[in-house]
Amino acid sequence: MTPGDLAAYDRPPYWQPPEPRRTPREWALDVLLPWRLASRIYGPYRMMRMSASGVAAVAGAELLDPLLQPLATQLVAQTLDPLVERLMWARALFGLGVILLVVRLANGTSADELFKDSFGDSIVLLVTGPIALLLACVSLVLLARAGTRRRVGRLVARPLFTGVVTFAGFLLMAESNPGAYIGNLAGLRLLMATWVPAFTLPTVYLIHRNSFAVRGHPLVRPLVAVLLVWLTLIGHVTLVDTKGATTSGAGALAGLLVGPVGVTVTALIELVRLRRRHRVGFRGPLPPLPGRAPRGTRPGV
């Protein structure tokens, strides 16, 4: 390990600028609007994208005006590769089983069966998510270079904590009886009946899109995505589709497998992109290519 190995973890895409402090009004909106709360916990629906010219302009402004330095650093750090952004959107569609849904609709599956299977898959996802996170995060820590594993452990702590809290919340809801506390308050029951689905649906989408990996190690997202979708497939076959309704016939089987395969392909493309463009390796940050400076150097590093 060299001093540069640790210093590289203080630069994007590993290091991310601190989140801006939210006002009381923003906190209130996050609680009242479930889709906003889901985005706060599981990541944005769409990340900021800047062209190469935009990044260069920001960097030039940083050199001219020191007051713009924090803003420029934050903008460059949050810039996402446009290809990765498109991959995340496609991966979410594959992970949600959109292809399987189309196949089942074409085979005449009733809406009631589709709803039951979708609800069952959401429950399976909340169970397999923490397992996928644990496997991916532990692997990244073990693969890291000696002397940097503590730093990598801090980079995977937030995604792992998010997954554990998600699983704990699911267990709490499964074991408790909210109706016993709500009683006869019809208005509150109606609010919960609308708030919970409005929170669950974007949560499931954002889990597939961001893989719990907000502000975490850049390799957490593609690794968790692959593990999550295959574990969910196993859970779907063994727990939800116990009669084999979606695996009967070559077309149905292809519809069942196209989602996991699509997620795996997009994750492999992202892994290659992170390695070649952002110099992110499983053992740690890779040295910059000849004639190319490290991307997004953090001030003071």
Can you walk through the features of this model?
The protein has helices at residues 3-8, 24-32, 34-42, 52-64, 69-78, 82-95, 98-106, 111-143, 149-175, 178-182, 186-210, 220-240, 250-277. By secondary structure, it is mostly helical. It has one domain (3-277). α7 runs antiparallel to α13, α8 packs antiparallel against α9 (149-175) and α12 runs antiparallel to α13. The longest helix is centred in the middle third of the chain and has 33 residues, at 111-143. The model is unreliable at 49-64 and 68-79 (pLDDT under 50).
List the helices and strands and how they pair.
Elements: H1 3-8, H2 24-32, H3 34-42, H4 52-64, H5 69-78, H6 82-95, H7 98-106, H8 111-143, H9 149-175, H10 178-182, H11 186-210, H12 220-240, H13 250-277
Helix pairs in contact: 2-3, 3-11, 4-5, 6-11, 6-13, 7-13, 8-9, 8-12, 12-13
Tally of individual helices: 13
In terms of DSSP E residues, the strand content is: under 5%
| Beta strands, count | 0
Unreliable spans: 49-64, 68-79
Mean pLDDT: 75
The number of domains is 1
Major sheet attributes: none
Structural class: mainly alpha
Radius of gyration: 21 Å
Shape: globular
Distance between the termini: 17 Å
> What is the string of SSEs from the N terminus onward?
HHHHHHHHHHHHH
